[in-house]
Amino acid sequence: MTSGKPVHENIILAVLLVAVLMAAIDSTIVLLAFPAIVTSLHSNISTIIWVILIYMLLGAVATTQLGKIGDIYGRSKIFIAGLAVFTVSSFLCGIAPSDIFLVAFRAVQGLGGAMVSATSGAIIADTFERHRIGRAFGFIAMAFNVGAILGIVLGGIITTFVGWQYIFFINVPIGIVALALGIKYISDKQTFKAKLDVPGMVILGVSLSVLLYGGIGLAAAGASTLNIALIILGAVLLIAFYFIEKRAENPTMPLDMFANKVFRNSIYASLLQGMGFLGVIFMIVMYLQGVRGFSPFYASLILVPGYIISGVIAPYMGRLSDKRGARIVATVGIALMILGVIVYLFLNVLSSIYLVILGSVVMGIGGAMFWPSNLSAIMAHADQRRFGIASGMSRLFSTMGMMASFIVVFVVAAFSIPRAQAFQIFVGASTIKSGVASAFVNGMHVAFVAMIAILVIAGIISLVRGKEDRSGNGGMHNKVKITDPTEEPYAQQPPQ
Length: 496
Hints:
By secondary structure, this protein is mainly alpha-helical. It has two domains: 6-196 and 250-471, Growth Hormone, Chain: A (Up-down Bundle); 197-249. It has 19 helices and two strands. It has helices at residues 6-25, 34-41, 45-48, 50-73, 75-94, 99-127, 133-161, 166-169, 171-185, 198-221, 225-247, 261-291, 296-302, 304-324, 326-344, 353-380, 387-413, 419-426, 434-463; strands at 192-193, 491-492.
């Protein structure tokens, strides 16, 4: 990378933080703006929902290959290009003349966000020594995960007081400044020779797209023949993807990386934590807006304290994981998330909002412990030649968990109230009539129990992840046999 001087490291970290935070915020910032967007563009909820889904889908599908492209052509180049794409497409989203244009521009924005997310972890691992990357990952992990929640808050505030277009316009000046600093300070010492796995990427993309489409259809319309068939097809394609990857010369997802127990369990913990955590936040938003009748703005403010606390302490938790390892820190973090969900089990139709705030604070602290330590464990146990792939895989599994959360929430909510009404409530376009509020709360409790079960499994996987080696000698490179240092897929190239 660039000079090892702390000032340069801090500037690089700041640029990465801002870029990743913007990409993460934009994954959810449109949620509370849906009613305003529908009215402004004369659209409907079933179309506008793809404004968020297409963004998440592109992020999930593209990250692994974009991470590998960064390994080949330069991580800084892909990061900076992604930042430019994200900034320009943000402006285009703000001026979109119709819902179809908005969805299309969001797809481009999602690609830019994926380019940023897929390479940021690798750049951190390149810049900082392995025994002190935890603090840096504390900031980046905070940006990834707190950003998704902060997006809900900012979406409510900006939409209420300024206008929905500015949830996109706000990225433009910030992106320009980050782009200028990134061009000046972020560069690559070396690249690594490899080939892309286009067939694998296509199969992964199709399988996730079909699963997401079928899952959303299942949540919105019920178990129709088409939706069940799509889900089965998506599952079959994922199985096919696994066997194709086992035989591929240059796989999208190198399965030998999973030979390292710490890496493998950290990836799985990321998937299940995303599935269990974000689903809880979705349900709380529905509760605040639908049951309590709070405006999107007020509902978002109630969630602020927990995520401010989380943002403040995440870097310190990352530093602690440098000293103590990720296993205990991350596992205690998941335990606190479970405790926060248990607090939410006491919610009823007339509960004090302070109970919501308490649960948010407890879960926020848990997230601050889990996110940086788990991400640093992933990157510390990846070979340097595969930092980009490891970073992309971390984003892939986390985003898959988030998308699964989205589906689980609506399926569970649909057991207590009509699906159409659940959908309207979630985006702030409707409230629950008093006669069915109790039924919804009971359904919400069922969802919380499901999320607790998912988080318990995540905690167990985190606890048994194994002993870590942050020395730089215990990562994936001791697990992967490379018979010829010049052979593909990861032959080192001369410094540039």
